[in-house]
Amino acid sequence: MFESALLPQKMDKKTFKELEPKLREALLGAQLPVIENQPFSTLLLVDGLDGAGKGEAVARLYGWMDARHLICNAYGEPMDEARLRPPLWRYWRDLPARGDTAIVFGSWYQSVLRDWIFDRIDEDAFEKALARILRFEEMLANEDVLILKFWFVLPRQAQEERLKEIETKNAARHVLADWAALKNHEKASEAGERLIQETSKGYAPWFVIPSEDPEYRDAALAEAVAGAMKRKLEDGKPRTLAAPPVIGGVKRQTAVDTIDLSARLEKNDYEELKDKYQKKLSDLSDLKSMSKTGVVLVFQGNDAAGKGGAIRRVIQPLDPRIYKVYPISAPSDEEKARPYLWRFWRRVPPRGHFAFFDRSWYERVLVERVEGFAGHEDWLRAYNEINEFEQELTDFGFIVCKFWLAISEKEQLRRFKAREDTSYKQHKITDDDWRNRLKWDQYAVAAGDMIDRTSTPHAPWTPVSSENKRHARIEVLKTICARLEEKL
Asked: Comparing C-alpha atoms, which of 234, 270, 202 is closest to residue 472?
C-alpha cells in the first residue's frame, strides 16, 4: 500500500515558495467559514513513523491557518486521572467545539498499535479494538465532526538518518513512540498498512503522507485538509422530524404500557425497608472492592414521577465525597457545540464513586425525538450509540443502573396541581411540563422504544411503578443493592 508513497516525492524550494500563498489561501478559505458559521468541528489525527516530521508539518499548519481556532492535543500513556476512567474518556473530554480544529498526536490508535506490534494482543483482540474505534469515529462523524487521519511514511534509510539528526539535536525526544521507532520499522509499516486498509472509511479517511521531502510533505497535508474541509462545507443535509406515534388512529403498545401501576407500600413498612436497604447500601459502598468499580445511575420517567425524591433516598446513606448528582436540562451553547454524549462523558465518575443522572443521554431519544430537536436519522442511530457508550462503561468494570419511573396521566395531573399550590414546590412546575402533557402518547411510545432497544444484559432497564412514591423508592434502593452485591 505504501509503495508509491515511498518513492522519492520531491518539491524544490522555488516551486514550494510559489505554491505556499495558494495553500494558505485554500486553508483559510475553508477554515474561516467553519469558524464563522460553526457547521462542524474538525479532528486531524497525525500518526506514522518516528522521525517523519509530524510535528514540523503541524507547526506549518499553525502558520498557515487561524491558530486561534486550532487546538493541539498530545497523548501518551494514560496518567492517573485517565486510568480511573474508560479508555475513550480522555478523547471525549478534549473534543473541539464546532468551528474549531483539534490536531491529535497519539490518538486512540496508539495503544492498539503498540500492543499489536509487541504481541500483547491476539488477532481477535486486535479486530475487536479496531471495530470499537470505527464505531466511535462513525458516531463522531454523525455528530458533525470531520475526521481526517494522516499516516506519515518514510523509507527505512530516511528514517534512520532523520532519527540520528533528531538525537544529535536532542530535539523532541519525548514525543517519539517506541512502537514506531527504527527497530520496529518493518512491523510498524505493516501495521500501518493493515490499519489503513481496515479503518479508512468515507466518514473517517486515512491519507498517506510521503514525508522524506519536507516541502512535499507539508504541501500534501495542507491540500488534503483544505480539500476535505471545503467538501464538508458543501455537503450539508436537512434534518427530518420524528414519525407520529399513532398510525391509522391506533397507538402502538410498548413496554411502558405493561408497567403495573397498582403497587403500593404502607408507611410503616416503608420506613422499615428504607432503613434496611439504606444500611445495606452504606455497607456496600464501604467495601474495599468498591474502589475497583464506578456506579452510574440513570433516572428517567414521566414528569413529576419522583425522580428527585428517589435520588435523595439513595444518597442519604452515602459519603458525600463519593457521589455527585447531575440534574440534566437543555444543553448549553458549549454543549451544543459538541456531540451530544460529550457532556455525559465528561461527567463519568472515577472508580470508587457514584454519579447520579436526573435525566440523561436518553433525552436524545425522548425529548429531542418528540419535540423534533433531533432528526429522524439522528435519534434512530442514537440507540446503538448509547448502547456502545454503556458498553464502554461496563467493560471497564462500572455498574450501570437505569430506572424508568412511571405514573399515570391522572396522577401526573394531580401532582402538577399540588406543585402549583405549594410555594416551595412551585419551581418544579414549568410551562414545558404542561406542554409535554399534551404529547403524553408520543412520549409513551418514545419511552417504550427506548426500553426495548437499550435494555441490554450489561445495562438493563428497571421499570418502576411510581404511582406510590414509597413503593418506587424502595424498588430503586433494592435494585441498586442487588446490582452492587452481584458485582462486589
From this structure: 270
Return the C-alpha torsion angle 96, 203, 212, 2, nearest 10. 150
CA dihedral (95, 349, 294, 457) positive or negative: negative
pLDDT in tens, 156-188: 888 888 888 877 766 544 456 677 778 888 888
144 CB-contact burial (10 Å; exposed 0-12 / middle 13-18 / buried 19+): middle
Whether the per-residue pLDDT at 245 is higher than 60: the answer is no
Spatial separation of the C-alpha atoms in residues 352 and 291, rounded to whole Å: 4
Domains, the chain, ordered by start: 3-233 (3.40.50.300), 246-487 (3.40.50.300)
pLDDT in tens, 98-144: 999 999 998 999 999 999 999 999 999 999 999 999 999 999 999 99
- Note the pLDDT tens digit of each residue in 272-307: 999 999 999 999 999 999 999 999 999 999 999 999
333-349: average pLDDT: 97
Element at 151 (helix H, strand E):
strand 145-153
User: How many Å apart are CA 149 and CA 352, to the nearest integer?
Assistant: 36
For cell 498530545, what's the residue?
A: 74
- How far, in Å, CA of 243 to CA of 239, rounded? 13
CA distance 403 to 297: 8
Q: How far is the C-alpha of 169 from the C-alpha of 412, rounded, in Å? A: 72
Dmax (CA) of the chain = 89
Reduced to 3 states, what is the DSSP secondary structure of residue 324? strand
Q: Between these two residues, 222 and 157, which has the higher pLDDT value?
A: 222
Residue in the structure block whose three cell numbers are 494482543: 121
Sign for the pseudo-dihedral over CA of 132, 135, 141, 145: negative
Q: Grade residue 237 by pLDDT with cuts at 50, 70 and 90.
A: very low
Distance (Å, whole) CA 467 – CA 263: 8
* Conformation bin of residue 267: beta by default, left when phi > 0, alpha when psi is -120 to 50: alpha
Contact 266, 469 (CB under 8 A): no
Cα distance between residue 95 and residue 345, in whole Å: 11
Phi/psi region, residue 244 (left: phi>0; alpha: psi -120 to 50; beta: rest), is beta
Select from 342, 346, 368 the least CA-distant residue to 355. 346
pTM of the model: 0.84
Spatial distance between the Cα atoms of 144 and 236, rounded to a whole number of angstroms = 10
